[in-house]
Amino acid sequence: MATVDPAEPEADLARSGPALVALRPDLAALGSAGIDELLATVADPKQPAARRHAAGLRLGELGDPRIGAGAATRANVGPLVPDMVDVPAGITLMGIDLDEVDRVVARWASLGVERSWILKEAPRHEVPIAAFRIGRFPVTNEEFLAYVLATAPAERPSGWGHGTFPLGAANQPVYTVSPEEASRYCAWLAEATGRPFRLPTEAEWEYAATGGDGRQYPWGDEWDPARANTAETGPLTTTPVGIHPRGASPFGVLDLAGNVEEYVADDYAPYPGAGVVDDDLTATHGASYRIARGGSFARHGDLARCARRHGWYPSAHYAMGFRLVESVNVTATP
Fold first, then answer.
1. Contact, 324 vs 129, CB < 8 A?
2. Residue 296: closest CA among 214, 245, 220, 239
3. At residue 40, does pLDDT exceed 80?
4. Is residue 50 helix, strand or coil?
């Protein structure tokens, strides 16, 4: 029988209600704040986490200007173009050394992490990366709504209760859609905008998260639950994108750890020189399944590691989102 990641957050669910209630004073204090003040609050790492969260929620209510070029909830709104970050060409360290596998397993042993889960990350190897652009944030509910309206009947995310758009979470990551639907979204947006949007490769995603130096987390090698929306300290639901500025990657990309897991373009395959690792994901999906990266609000810090290779389980505890990249055409200088 297939096993799933342990430490399901049911025992912590009582924390999510009080965590959200605790936002009320900040929501009240920001009730008359303008868009510019809210944007500044969200991006200010010196602001308390609750204040940034409340500011993000208010932006979602008012229409977050960081999300595309307008509000998809208005009539006759077309596709929303994401804020993209330029990532230069380079060589990235991908994965971990084989002798690091047991250390990682021991570090997260309290969560029941199994060696097979981590073994998929080895061996560490170098991958050349061409220049590309990547979404500063994962795709949001607001962006996905534009797709649903334009392509109905599109697949409705499980994060939309009873298939209804979550008005209070417009600027929060969409979840859960299938990897095929994520790819269809990319193709639709590419056709609608004339820009080569697609899902990132595994190597591109890891490079965007680490800057190429093989760090454990987008911010460095030490786990810090204050820098990401994971089950350790988060409200056990999605949060507005970008409210953890201290969790940014070296390129300034946000939410690469926590909030929602992110599909990449690649199906699972062993790294060069390694064999196929059979684990709970292959038992669930077979030898081939779409890789997801980055962890989520419902999972712990072990899954938020930059090198962690995961995938989707048919469970509400697995919040699967995605973000976009686009290729950059480089013209040689004569």
1. no
2. 239
3. yes
4. helix
* Cβ(66)–Cβ(83) below 8 Å: yes
Residue 72: band (very low, low, confident or very high) from pLDDT cuts 50, 70, 90: very low
Can you tell me whether residue 105 is helix, strand or coil? helix
pLDDT of residue 332 exceeding 50: no
Whether the per-residue pLDDT at 61 is higher than 60: the answer is yes
Yes or no: say if 199 and 264 are a contact pair by the CB < 8 Å rule. yes
pLDDT confidence bin for 276, thresholds 50/70/90? very high
- Report CA torsion sign: 205, 107, 121, 285: negative
Alpha helices (runs of H) in the chain, residue ranges in sequence order: 13-21, 24-29, 35-43, 49-62, 101-107, 115-119, 141-151, 179-193, 202-210, 280-285
**What is 81-327's CATH number?**
3.90.1580.10
CB-based burial label for 263 (10 Å; 0-12, 13-18, 19+): buried
Q: How far is residue 169's CA from residue 238's CA, in Å, rounded to a whole number?
A: 8
Type of residue at 284: T
pTM: 0.91
Per the omega criterion (within 30 degrees of 0), is the bond before 166 cis? no
What's the order of all strands across the beta sheet hosting 325-327?
84-87, 132-135, 325-327, 197-198
Hunting for tokens 């899902």 — which residue is that?
199
| pLDDT at 9 exceeding the cut of 70 | no
Q: What is the dihedral of CA 217, 221, 224, 229, to 10 degrees?
A: 10
Determine the Cα–Cα distance for residues 86 and 328; give it in Å rounded to an integer.
Answer: 9
Gap between the Cα atoms of 7 and 69, Å rounded? 40
Domain boundaries, the chain: 17-62, 81-327
- CA distances in angstroms from 306 to 13, 200, 293, 296, listed in the order given: 26, 14, 7, 13
